[in-house]
């Protein structure tokens, strides 16, 4: 997986959210959380797995809404941040954090109602294998996001030291077919890439985001979007 050693560093885990989801990054955090909630719907008493849960942004949010959730990640320091967050939110009895490999999920077939992975597939070196594992342990639903190949993300990606894996619509269709998943809903957003917003004060980012959203609402919006959310059913 791209950036694996970097991702597992203690300092990266400690600063991960403050660097990505402060300032204009708060807009990204809110939009991603809304995308998850819109796709999954009511989660009370649902059995959920979050793959590559990181610091537990979504894990804790879903636990607060009544989900019985497991967060799996390869990084011990990231998981520790998640555990501290769950304790602070008083939901640690609804959450289990596990260190593990997303390519070999340590669960039986059809074990979870819903399996989700956010901010993961842009780092995946073997996306088909990862998605097949998510499908294997899901009983009803698999939800994930991707960065899009034919978008402003491609320019931003060029400047990044690690880069990101970008996906065309054809590649997504092929991945879903290979995993035996049926696309139920799709949503496309962010004409400007995420990194653009993280550099701005929140007020300026909000103004730019209004323009971004207006462009996204035009007939060209989906084609220009740099991020896609894929809600699939087993």
From TrEMBL:
Keywords for the protein's UniProt record, in alphabetical order: Methyltransferase, Transferase
SUPFAM superfamilies, per the entry: S-adenosyl-L-methionine-dependent methyltransferases
Pfam families named in the record: Methyltransf_25
InterPro entries for the chain: Methyltransf_25, SAM-dependent_MTases_sf
One of the record's GO molecular function terms: methyltransferase activity
Methyltransferase domain ranges (all copies): 48-140
GO BP: methylation
Name by which UniProt lists this protein: Class I SAM-dependent methyltransferase
Native source organism of the sequence: Haloarcula limicola
